[in-house]
Specification:
Layout lengths: L4 E4 L5 H14 L11 H13 L4 E6 L2 E10 L9 E8 L8 H15 L4 E7 L4 H9 L3 E12 L2 E11 L10
Parallel strand pairs: 4-5
Antiparallel strand pairs: 1-2, 2-3, 3-4, 5-7, 6-7
Helix pairs in contact: 1-2
């Protein structure tokens, strides 16, 4: 039995990431998009993350990508420059097998090493208890719920906000 490997994504991973994300867009409420982006758009999104020197990771087993995670800017204005927002998407057939945690732990570490001070999780749909529990297990705290902010599949959806300090967080001034 082979083990799960977490590594930096490559250009060759983009199509598989688009496939994983596309399933979530079409069948789930983790993303509030309604039309899956094509591979070219996913390539642009990945490049934008990497251009900011932020991590974009994949988890693979037996040569197959089972999930991906990345950190993006929480908001674009300069005062937010020390805060990032994480995103994690797992192949729907491999949920509950530890892939999310295997991705989130190194994502937190890489963002901390890059000098970021806060990580925000914006979890689509308050019914995503697995995602909420994953984030709690990695030190995130619930900071609020924005009720009925999205509408998909004929129903209103909440966004759950969770936050985790990175490094010294707000205990001192950044270098």
């Amino acid at each position: 039995m082979s083990e799960l490997i977490v590594r930096a994504s490559t250009e060759a991973d983009v199509a598989r990431c688009a496939e994983i994300y596309g399933h979530h867009v079409l069948h789930g409420t983790a993303s509030f998009e309604v039309d899956p982006p094509d591979v070219a758009e996913m390539r642009k999104r990945r490049a934008a993350v990497l251009d900011l020197d932020l991590p974009y990771l994949v988890a693979e087993k037996d040569g197959r990508v089972l999930g991906y995670a990345y950190a993006g800017l929480y908001r674009p204005r300069p005062a937010y420059r020390f805060s990032v927002e994480n995103s994690i998407y797992i192949d729907h057939e491999t949920r509950g097998q530890g892939v999310g945690k295997a991705l989130l732990v190194p994502l937190i570490d890489l963002c901390t090493k890059a000098g970021r001070r806060q990580m925000i999780a914006v979890i689509g749909d308050s019914a995503h208890t697995a995602s909420i529990k994953l984030h709690e297990s990695c030190g995130f705290e619930m900071i609020g719920t924005i009720r009925s902010v999205g509408f998909k599949f004929g129903r209103w959806l909440d966004s759950v906000l969770m936050q985790r300090p990175l490094g010294t967080g707000d205990r001192d001034l950044p270098a």
